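Morning!

This is the sequence you dropped in the shared folder:
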Amino acid sequence: MAAPEHGRRIEELIAERRAKVERLREEGHFPYSYPGTTAVAQLAERFASLAPGEESGEHALVAGRLHARREQGRIAFLDLLERSGTIQLYARRDVLGPERFASLLALDLGDLVGAEGYVVRSRRGELSLALTDFKVLAKALRPPPDKHAGITDVELRHRRRELDLMASAEVRARFAARARIIAAVRAYLDGERFIEVETPVLQPLYGGALARPFVTHHNELGRDLYLRIATELYLKRLIVGGLERVYELGKDFRNEGVSHKHNPEFTMVEWYEAYADYRDGAARLEAVVRAAAAAVGGGAAERFAGPWRRLTFEQAIAEHTGIETTRFTDVAALRAEIERRGLAVGSHEQSYGALLDALLSSHVEPKLIEPTLIFDYPIEISPFARVHRDDPRLAERWEAFVDGIEIANAFSELQDADLQRERFEALAAARERSREQRGGMGGAQEEESTVPFDAEYIAALEQGMPPTAGVGLGIDRLVMALTGARTIREVILFPALRPRA
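The structure's back. Tokens below.
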């Protein structure tokens, strides 16, 4: 924010502004409502043909925040900012009267004002309202951000989003675009006969992803519960129940780190479609993103108009690292080749599939700028996916990438209850071996970042689940891709932040 007016301390400015409140109240300001207003954008469209210097003769009411003021003796020009745009208020002393005119000039930038008058266009071509009356709707005790410099402190922008929105038309436009994107995703799925559902946010057992949950306690039930990390397992139980096409758009929570692409509270849409496979899911993703991009328009619509590039997991690694993964059949040989090429991938305790996944995440994903689908992941890192119909080493799974970030994950869903049970048991055994290798240290926390055994989900599969395609699409990351935002904090109104120093 800019420095306070004339270098005065903020406390002095607040005291000065507060002193005006009682006088404004005595003048009859601060109404409980201000009905009948018209959006500035609607006025601009309706009176687009009004020529410079022309008066429409039509009366209108507008409301917004006082953004700028210019005085010229017996006349004044004030800019009023509301969500859809800015309109100039043209005030004359002889129209308002001396006292009302003086009261208008005593207002401070940031005050919320309701204005009424006649729509005109100034001689300079600016759409204006020739003021006949006004009401102060709320007094701003603190000065607004500087209208030219805005807010230069990035942390302040994220911590005080109301100031960020007040200062930047670009930020307001981005969050309006986010709302249109979400509406477009819903409209597309609704139009394709999907049913929107709600599953528990507080869950007795977390599942559907490899992540550490937030834990809470329910006093009446006397048990711990978890904020969901994914909606997957509940949604597939609805497929078993016969709903056939379902989706949920809402919040998931993961008790993990923050970064330019991670926030512990984030928005996902997951949809599940009976009698479809992961190839159908890929076509569906392209259609969903096309619909969302069309809602944004411009370059976003053009960028996502055509088909996405498609590669297999093995092709993507070979293309971007030079490693032909089929030549290396065990962890030691693969790690030796990775180290020979000077490619860092982190921990030495990874399985073969996890090592490949780390290689892709570190050295392939950042290079996937244009919309890309990577198919056929190693089966051992895909516990809810069906075995690939042509290669038992692989899963029928893909992930979608844009601007170097994964935005979606999908499977041909595993239907076999016995095989799903075996995978749960194998994961539990691997978790126990890991604990033993650590001498039992840190076990409870580590267990929370694995996939637990879900007996109720197994029981649901035992009822019989049809062939199903499942897709999870990150809304925050999709908004990043469609609006050009560089970090997830730019598309979440109130992102998670560390405490102030």
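Headline: The longest strand covers residues 55-72.

More detail when I'm at my desk.
O.
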